[in-house]
Amino acid sequence: MKLFRRMKKINFYSGPAILPPEVVVKAGEAIQNFAGTGLSILEISHRSKEFIQVMEEARNLVRELMDLDKDHEVLFLQGGASSQFYMVPMNLLGKDETACFLETGQWAHLAMEEALTFGKAHIACSSKEENYRFIPKNISLPDSSKYLHLTTNNTIYGTQLTTSFISQLAAQSSWLVADMSSDIFSRQMDFNQFDLIYASAQKNVGAAGITIVVVNKNILGTVDRPIPKMLDYRLHIERDSMYNTPSSFAVYISYLTLKWIKQQGLKAIEERNIRKARKLYEVIDSSKIFEGTADDEDQSLMNVCFTIKDKSLEEKFLKFTSERGIVGIKGYRTVGGFRASIYNAMPEDGVDILVDAIKEFENKQA
Ligand code: PMP
């Protein structure tokens, strides 16, 4: 394990992203011989008792970590969070009904656009005009809205909704739907206040290939359009996410990651995430050459976005950091600069290496 850690780069990619080293090692073992079956996890039937057990345990781990009540069902689907952008309105929004959206980033915008195919969309607030550098707090919610959709963490812009703001919105809205792709299981929260949660796995809870969906089964069946089988949450609930062949290897990686999350505990994970983010924001805030791009009060614990005032130093900084084994910090093209994604699996000493690199680079420029 030590050797493995030493060989690794310090991975700040936004997703697919860093995994706990023990998850990668165990996944490697299962590629050779899964659960003592003499078969690879890549080769075994999803109908085998060994794989069904993985699926069941993964589902139970999500239930347990989120402390879900009996109305909430857990699904492992395919098609990424992007498929949930249309699957949610297809299942929940009638053609004359309105869904509300907090337009806090590109992904939220895309979710809103897809809803227009099925019903009406109301933008409850937007920070689009200012390149989504903050979370607007003045929300307009029409009484008649069917559900409110929010993106809890805006991966590209490094902004995040606080848990208290989310609870405030939950109290005001009818059904609450959340895209938690980039901060699921990063902090403690009342998960039962959501009627539907979706998250691609490849940032905080596994590898690319599956999307976790948690849905309150009581909200289903209220639209009268025909829904193709593969896009109907009710069928996936009935068939335990095995209506068709699931993305079995990706389910297995999420299962291992969920076990790791349980072992660490959400409370400890949250505390560590706060410490990691604070270290980075402090060094950026006290710098004369770097600056953060998100408003202070909305800064994300998961994606720390920053720029360098003198743009001609950008490439130099990227080279400087890559020489120190730091990868994946180039910012998204619409924001520019840098983005350090510090998901659950990023150890504190990984963040320390980036903090030191920022300081050292700045000293060199002085
Ligand atoms: N929502 C958020 C918040 C994201 O960060 C992303 C991807 N980065 C998506 C949705 C889209 O996810 P996918 O590529 O899995 O469809």
Description of the molecule:
With 366 residues, this protein is of the alpha/beta class. It is 38% helix and 17% strand. The chain is built from 11 helices and 14 strands. The strands form 4 sheets. It has a 7-stranded mixed sheet, sandwiched between helices. A 3-stranded antiparallel sheet has the order 11-12-14, with helices on one face. Strands 1-13 form a two-stranded parallel ribbon. Helix 3 (49-66) packs across helix 8 (248-264) and helix 4 (80-92) runs parallel beside helix 5. 4'-deoxy-4'-aminopyridoxal-5'-phosphate binds at residues 15, 80-82, 107, 151, 155, 179, 181-182, 200.
Give a summary of the structure in a few sentences.
The protein has 366 residues and is an alpha/beta fold. The protein has 11 helices and 14 strands. It starts with a helix and ends with a helix.
Count of beta strands: 14
Distance between the termini: 39 Å
Radius of gyration: 21 Å
The quaternary organization reads as: single chain
- Average pLDDT, to the nearest integer? 96
Determine the strand fraction and express it as a percent band. Answer: 15-25%
- Which term fits the overall shape? globular
Sheet with most strands: 7 strands, mixed
Tell me which ligands are bound: 4'-deoxy-4'-aminopyridoxal-5'-phosphate
Instruction: Name the helix and strand elements from N-terminus to C-terminus, one letter apiece.
Output: HEHHEHEHEEEEHEEEHHHEEHEEH
* Helix count, DSSP H or I runs of 4 or more residues: 11
Uncertain spans, ≥5 residues at pLDDT below 50? Answer: none
User: Helix/strand-derived class?
Assistant: alpha/beta
Proportion of residues in helical segments: 25-40%
Strand order of the largest sheet: 2-10-9-8-5-3-4
